Amino acid sequence: MNTLLSFDKVNAYYGNAHILHDFSIDVKEGESLALIGRNGVGKTTFVNALLGQAKVRSGSIRLGRKESARWHPYMPAKEGVMVVPQGRCIIANLSVEENLLLGAATGRKGYWTVPKIYGLFPILRERAHTPGTALSGGQQQMLAIGRALMGNPTLMILDEPTEGLAPVIVDQLGDIIRQVNEQGTTILLIEQNLHLVARVSRRYLAVEKGSVIAEGIVDPEQIEQLQQFVVV
Prior knowledge:
The chain is 29% helix and 29% strand. The strands form two sheets. It has a six-stranded mixed beta sheet with strand order 6-7-8-3-9-10, with helices on both faces. It has a four-stranded antiparallel beta sheet with strand order 2-1-4-5, with helices on one face.
């Protein structure tokens, strides 16, 4: 199984604040991996290091066959890695469809097109010409996922996608994420909601104080054993 994304002993900083400590992770083609941990342990910094928004002072990041200590924000998308960011980052003055089309700016061709996104999220078709920020929180999350899929990623990273959402919406998103994974897109889910982790992920890595401290197979029947990594 090919490795799509690898961090090898990455040390990342914001200014002089050392956040990631020898952080290592391998994401394999086709898998659905969960990165779990409490707030403030470095999960989002992992994404920011990938996007060049946190300074990597040592270690290396590899995307496919390309390796670097620092990536510019546009480079992961060009290599087939799309991020659904924490907070969704919907562009306020653009319509739903215009927000979706932003995801296609990478020029990558593949399965996902606007009609395919509308098939996955019918509510987005109904509100195609509505300002993206006029949607509900759950609908905005669907839009953020749809926008990422428009880049036809080999790997999609979702950073805390359930934040602020009702349980019924979380269940809907879980079904969609599984469907996307089964369609062929590798998933890296950064999440504290273990219900969603059990629903969509096969493997987990637990983060504490900027390092990976545990990993294993996700067993939905024993998911409560992972509470130690997410409960303060």
